[in-house]
Design goal:
Elements (H helix, E strand, L loop, with lengths): L18 E6 L6 E2 L4 H6 L11 E2 L2 H20 L3 E3 L10 E3 L2 E3 L8 H4 E4 L2 E4 L12 H13 L4 E4 L21 H9 L17 E4 L2 E5 L6 H10 L4 E5 L14 E5 L2 E4 L7 H8 L4 E4 L23 E4 L2 E5 L3 H9 L3 E5 L15 E6 L11
């Protein structure tokens, strides 16, 4: 039976097959969360956001929502079904018996929380305390999918305790310096310890039988091992990027565009010994074009390399941020129909176009793109 927008089906095996059903986030109620170990390690040392927390200015929420709504409209006009999450009151304390935080975060980036592998949508553990309850924004949608698709599996990874044992005290200083951070990244010495499994869904790239997972601030080796045990029919491979002093989420560093082609952030190159796996399976890794902007938007944690945070609609079509002229040009030269989407006003709420979406259904089956082991 062919796919119909009126009949829910959950299935997505990779980042490039034709997209037919997606979740697009919202900026409503987005907060700058208060200091906590995982967040402190991420915020750049020269950022004016250090020490700030609380609701984001309403004008910025409105501007972000306008761009998110426009993005959703673009997708819908191309025949893609778009669902939206239910925001919580993020400007309130949240707590467990182990910790308390004064505000939460938001629900602009479903890609961080939800991982779709085949017919399963998995809720990630999350590594920030302020994001512990974020899965609730998506529960109504997931329950709907479960009721409408008899083949859908709704899973949740074990919620971590996120005590101080989960974080290295070395990262609590705000004066570590980038050279030391780069040394620690090269040594795979990250803010997260191996106390318990931790992973964010945005650290996982789905490539058929292979799951490529970044080991960094938000995903530890125990989290990668948990994924390997949970998906025994997949090959789960850990990667890391020594050039990144703040290694969080893979989709502004390593971006598959279609079978056989990946963009890599030229400042965060995949190490040679890890490139071999791609080379012997005839994958080309190209350097992403430079960002068009030298600084991120106001009150934004993310790097300027959100320029390469694109959403592939099918192997010939890709959405990219409208002002990222160099990235648009590169994608055009690589043979894509490029859809420019204004999105910089939404960056501060959780990332770029890929971050702001969560796959529900892509056409296609699980294929082996890496037969040469």
């Amino acid at each position: 039976m062919s796919w119909s927008p009126d009949k829910t089906k959950v299935s997505s095996w990779n980042e490039w097959d034709p997209l037919k059903h997606v979740i697009v986030g919202r900026a409503d109620g987005g907060c700058i969360p208060p200091p906590e170990p995982a967040l402190d390690a991420k915020v750049p040392e020269d950022s004016d956001m250090r020490g700030m927390f609380g609701p984001r200015p309403q004008h910025s929420v409105d501007a972000a929502n306008a761009q998110l709504d426009h993005f959703a409209s673009i997708l819908e006009k191309r025949g893609i079904r778009v669902d939206r999450p239910d925001p919580l009151d993020f400007n309130q304390p949240s707590a467990t018996p182990d910790w308390q935080t004064e505000t939460m975060f938001g629900c602009m980036p479903p890609r961080d929380v939800l991982l779709t592998i085949g017919a399963e949508i998995l809720e990630a553990t999350m590594s920030y305390r302020c994001r512990w309850f974020e899965y609730l924004c998506y529960r109504q949608l997931l329950q709907q999918y479960y009721n409408e698709d008899p083949g859908m599996r709704h899973e949740a990874a074990p919620k971590p305790r996120l005590t101080d044992k989960d974080y290295r005290q070395d990262y609590l200083s705000d004066k570590i310096g980038v050279p030391r951070r780069l040394k620690w990244t090269e040594e795979k010495f990250f803010v997260t310890t191996e106390e318990e499994p931790l992973f964010d869904a945005a650290d996982v790239l789905r490539m058929g039988r292979d799951l490529i997972v970044q080991h960094g601030f938000t995903t530890n080796l125990k989290g990668i091992d948990w994924l390997a045990r949970h998906f025994p029919d997949h090959r789960v491979r850990a990667v890391n990027f020594p050039g990144d002093p703040y290694p969080i989420h893979i989709d502004a560093t390593f971006t598959p565009l279609r079978p056989g082609l990946i963009m890599n952030n030229p400042q965060r190159r995949l190490p040679d010994e890890q490139r071999d796996y791609f080379a012997r399976n005839d994958w080309e890794i190209v350097d992403a074009a430079p960002p068009a902007h030298q600084i991120p938007p106001p009150l934004c944690y993310s790097s300027v390399w959100l320029s390469m945070n694109v959403l592939v609609l099918d192997p010939k079509t890709v959405c990219a941020e409208a002002s990222e002229v160099y990235q648009l040009e590169q994608l055009d030269k690589l043979g894509f129909e490029v859809i420019p989407v204004p999105f910089r006003d939404a960056y501060a709420f959780g990332g770029g176009l890929h971050c702001a979406t969560g796959d529900v259904y892509r056409e296609g089956i699980c294929e082996d793109y890496f037969p040469n082991q």
